[in-house]
Write a structure and sequence with these properties.
This protein is an alpha+beta fold. It has 13 helices and 12 strands.
Length: 404
């Protein structure tokens, strides 16, 4: 009976100052919703990156220029990757565990179709082997061929995002676009891969024959990277060793600790990216947690004002025999109710907000963040409400009744 009376008195106290109570709950609401939503954004980014990397397949390797971890070769002595390196890797005698090799150059340019001007995320020049190695599937049309590469034809395969931006609902196949002033005929549209992180979209791409892109944009000196496909997932390690051995020969290297190239498999890329996104998620969670702390401080301030305003009421109740525990329980219940109601609304807002893209990322809610943020908000209500509640319960009746 006493418990329900305390609840009734607490609700009455909150209802007596509706605007004040609502503003206090708003602070807790924002804190809880921020924790849920920001952690969901961080988790969504991690999931997108993971899907993007794993979509390449478990037997894909990427060779890029630059000193390997622990390497000490200077920029002046670092040899760039070339088409000749790719041809050396494609030799089945030197690298029997390599199935296919695709050198890649990357650049950017504005694409124009009719009155529409759009800059794709990336323009790649490569060989037909790239499509299988990168797990790129055709939705419309077809890939360009080895003959297109040999004759440097101005043809291109575009991603679904690029197709939508340039052609809307029209069929792009057979139509001509201008890339940096050079006309390219669209021969195919890739299937949507998804996995956008908000900073890069794997479907926002134009892929053309390597010599064509080199002639029009990048020149023939070097390539950005070489994409390699091992014969199977089980031979990835052997293929990686063969890549290192072959490129040490073409780059005239004798010391394996001073390589001027890096070979990455999908597992190492995934580990590195997951580590980065986890740090990003923790940072977002820490920023959101500050909102919860601010909400708790707000509860303290409001409850101190409430105690001051109701000092005479407290004195009368204590004079009539109300024990300290009842007074303590009432004000502590009020602060806890503020945090519970605010946290409950915050959970609802956070879950609702997770249904929408945030900075291009589809949030993925972490169940533990919902339960954790709610529990922490309630604990904050208890903790930050304990001082005002104890102050109210400790008032002497005679001092309370004299209060003006």
């Amino acid at each position: 009976m006493i418990f329900w009376q305390i609840i009734r008195f607490a609700l009455g106290g909150l209802a007596a100052n509706k605007v004040r109570s609502a503003l206090t709950m708003l602070g807790v609401l924002i804190g809880v919703a921020s924790v849920i939503l920001l952690l969901a954004v961080g988790n969504g980014s991690s999931v997108a990156v993971k899907n993007s990397i794993t979509s390449l397949g478990t037997n894909s390797l990427t060779v890029s220029s630059g000193a390997s971890f622990g390497g000490s070769r200077s920029a002046a002595t670092t040899k760039k990757l070339t088409v000749a390196d790719a041809k050396a890797l494609a030799d089945p005698t030197a690298a029997p565990d390599i199935k296919s090799v695709a050198p890649v150059v990357s650049t950017s340019a504005t694409a124009i179709y009719g009155d529409i001007s759009y800059t794709p995320g990336s323009i790649l020049g490569t060989y037909p082997a790239y499509f299988e190695t990168a797990n790129e599937k055709i939705a419309k049309g077809d890939y360009f061929s080895a003959d297109d590469v040999l004759n440097s034809r101005k043809v291109a395969v575009i991603g679904s995002t690029t197709a939508t931006q340039l052609f809307n609902t029209d069929d792009p196949v057979g139509k001509t676009i201008s890339l940096g002033g050079t006309p390219f005929t669209v021969v195919g549209v890739l299937q949507t891969k998804g996995g956008s992180t908000g900073f890069s979209d794997p479907d926002d791409v134009v892929i053309a024959p390597l010599p064509t892109v080199q002639n029009a944009f990048t020149g023939f000196s070097s390539v950005s990277q070489i994409l390699v496909q091992a014969t199977s997932a089980d031979t990835t390690t052997q293929a990686q060793a063969e890549i290192t051995q072959v490129l040490m020969g073409t780059h005239s290297l004798t010391d394996p600790t001073k390589l001027d190239f890096r070979v990455s498999n999908q597992a190492s890329l995934l580990t590195a990216r997951e580590s980065t996104t986890q740090t990003f998620t923790v940072l977002l969670g820490a920023v959101a947690a500050i909102s919860l702390l601010v909400g708790g401080i707000g509860i303290t301030n409001i409850m101190l004002v409430t105690v001051t305003e109701r000092t005479r009421e407290i004195g009368i109740r204590k004079a009539l025999g109300a024990p300290k525990a009842v007074i303590l329980g009432q004000f502590l219940t009020e602060s806890t109710l503020l945090s519970v109601l605010g946290a409950g609304l915050g959970v609802g807002v956070g879950l609702f907000g997770a249904h929408f893209k945030v900075v291009g990322i589809v949030p993925v809610v972490i169940p533990s963040s919902v339960l954790g943020s709610f529990a922490i908000a309630v604990a904050i209500g208890l903790f930050f409400g304990s001082y005002p509640a104890n102050r109210a319960a400790s008032l002497r009746p005679i001092d309370a009744l004299r209060h003006e």
